[in-house]
Write a sequence for this structure.
């Protein structure tokens, strides 16, 4: 299939949507599809061969935040030319409600068009004013995908209709190999946590309380914490004489994050609720870590009811401490769980996600739909 | 002098109205085309699912009882008239769930020769019914709203096309092949 993908945000700035598009494009190409991406980019910028630049992006305030987007006559003309010469079987627009290339592409093309909605948004004046415009763009979309329940919900509530849910993927191979962080390593005594420290539903306080209990019985036990937030909040919750056994890394780079997964014996995900799909959990599993997670429905599903990782009663520090102790004392069980996790996580690999997206493409191109054409 | 101005103004208003109406009509036409294509795609997906289920039932890879349940449900869905279609397709989903959610159904099937290809086909067929039905119902929704507009009703912009109906079935996939 020839697939044209429209990215609304600049290619040189890292971000969730851009990463999603890059991963998807690569997974599709690996499956033998022909992919062309158009994204805002300056003319002198180095781009991968499958990306076309649509002109420089400018920072504009929209809907409560500032984003670098691309619009105007020049971009519109380039998008039009890209659509005309691309001979795409299907056009895949990301975030069509953002005033950037997505809207321009919707305007310039007709035929089988699929859109993916990433962000959840709340009713704002901007959207209310632009609604008739956006509505006519939305009318052109044959298939709609949402990456999360939240994104799907806000789309349905504000514009009606429905979307199919295809969550983000994890590039499993990217996590497979990494050196542990300096001075760290799986030594049978390290517990890890990754996530926002100040967000209640990520459950860090539960882990800290359990750590206090565990550390009292196990002199060598250490805790490694990574993620945005204030380290004071962490130390306030840990007994003073255990402070030197708790290390807070704060925000880490993508590479260090992977190394952190490789540095621990037990990776703990104590989330109390939410998490329609535990991406952190999937990353840890892909890194070959042994996982101990709260038994919220999403995690039980990802971990195959405990087959691919241990579970503890949600919100219960005593249960967490008990399960963690059992895991730390059983290296063979840890290895077994980690092995199972590597199998289970394949379901969340990008190749699987891309397969589902291709099914959507096939659905919208069934029958005498024809190719994507320029809409004059 | 003034009469020319009046004629001119009336003329401009008429032209603007004509442009607006034809734009509206064009948009509605486009929605009808999209609806038509979505319907085709839904029909194709349902047909594909029936075909794959029948093939699975006739493959001798399953026990005879399961095969019979599947074959009967697929046959009913194929024979159903327009009135019973939604019921029959929902029953097929239920039969499929009952079959595929048996213990070790996937493992057993993928271990038998030719079974894993069939399983893959079944996964795709089930997913495509879910996708195409969502997209079809979306198209029905927008077309309905557009047809109900005052202008469309008064000028009969929709012509003789019928008021589209949603296609409501139970298409929940078996738990073991849940995509979401």
């Amino acid at each position: 299939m020839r697939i044209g993908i429209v990215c609304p945000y600049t290619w040189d700035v890292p971000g969730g949507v851009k990463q999603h598009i890059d991963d998807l494009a690569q997974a599709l190409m690996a499956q033998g599809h022909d992919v062309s991406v158009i994204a805002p980019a300056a003319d002198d910028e180095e781009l991968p061969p499958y990306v076309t630049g649509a002109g420089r992006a400018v920072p504009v305030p929209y809907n409560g935040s500032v984003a670098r987007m691309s619009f105007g006559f020049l971009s519109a003309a380039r998008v039009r030319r890209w659509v005309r010469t691309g001979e795409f079987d299907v056009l895949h627009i990301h975030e069509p409600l953002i005033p950037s290339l997505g809207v321009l592409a919707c305007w310039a093309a007709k035929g089988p068009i699929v859109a993916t909605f990433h962000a959840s948004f709340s009713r704002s004046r901007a959207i209310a004013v632009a609604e008739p415009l956006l509505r006519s763009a939305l009318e052109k979309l044959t298939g709609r995908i949402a990456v999360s329940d939240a994104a799907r919900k806000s789309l349905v509530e504000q514009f009606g209709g429905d979307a199919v849910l295809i969550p983000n993927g994890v590039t499993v191979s990217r996590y497979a190999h990494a050196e542990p962080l300096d001075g760290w390593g799986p030594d049978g005594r390290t517990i890890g946590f990754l996530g926002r420290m100040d967000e209640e539903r990520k459950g860090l306080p539960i882990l800290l309380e359990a750590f206090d209990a565990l550390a009292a019985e196990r002199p060598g036990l250490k805790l490694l914490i990574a993620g945005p937030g204030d380290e004071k909040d962490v130390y306030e919750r840990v007994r003073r004489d255990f402070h030197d056994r708790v290390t807070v890394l704060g925000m880490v780079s993508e590479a260090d994050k992977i190394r952190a997964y490789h540095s621990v014996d037990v990776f703990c995900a104590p989330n109390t609720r939410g998490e329609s799909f535990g991406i952190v959990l999937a990353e840890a599993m892909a890194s070959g870590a042994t996982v101990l997670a709260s038994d919220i429905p999403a995690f039980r599903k990802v971990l195959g009811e405990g087959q691919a990782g241990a579970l503890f009663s949600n919100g219960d520090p005593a249960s967490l401490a008990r399960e963690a102790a059992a895991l730390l004392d059983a290296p063979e069980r840890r290895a077994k769980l980690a092995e199972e996790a590597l199998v289970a996580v394949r379901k969340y690999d990008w190749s699987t996600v891309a397969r589902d997206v291709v099914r959507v493409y096939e659905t919208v191109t069934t029958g005498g739909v024809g190719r994507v054409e320029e809409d004059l | 002098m003034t009469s020319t101005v009046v004629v001119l103004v009336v003329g401009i208003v008429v032209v603007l109205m004509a442009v607006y109406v034809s734009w509206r009509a064009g948009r509605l036409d486009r929605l009808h085309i999209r609806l038509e294509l979505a319907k085709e795609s839904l029909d194709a997906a349902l047909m594909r699912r029936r075909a794959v289920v029948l093939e699975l039932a006739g493959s001798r890879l399953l026990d005879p009882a399961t095969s019979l349940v599947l074959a009967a449900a697929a046959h009913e869905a194929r024979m159903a008239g327009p009135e019973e279609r939604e019921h029959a397709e929902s029953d097929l989903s239920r039969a499929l769930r009952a079959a595929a959610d048996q213990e070790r159904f996937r493992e057993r099937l993928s271990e038998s020769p030719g079974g894993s290809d069939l399983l893959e086909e079944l996964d795709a067929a089930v997913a495509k019914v879910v996708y195409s039905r969502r997209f079809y119902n979306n198209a029905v929704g927008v077309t309905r709203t557009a047809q109900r507009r005052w202008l469309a009703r008064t000028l009969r912009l929709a012509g003789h096309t019928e008021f589209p109906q949603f296609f409501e079935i139970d298409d929940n996939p078996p738990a073991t092949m849940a995509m979401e």
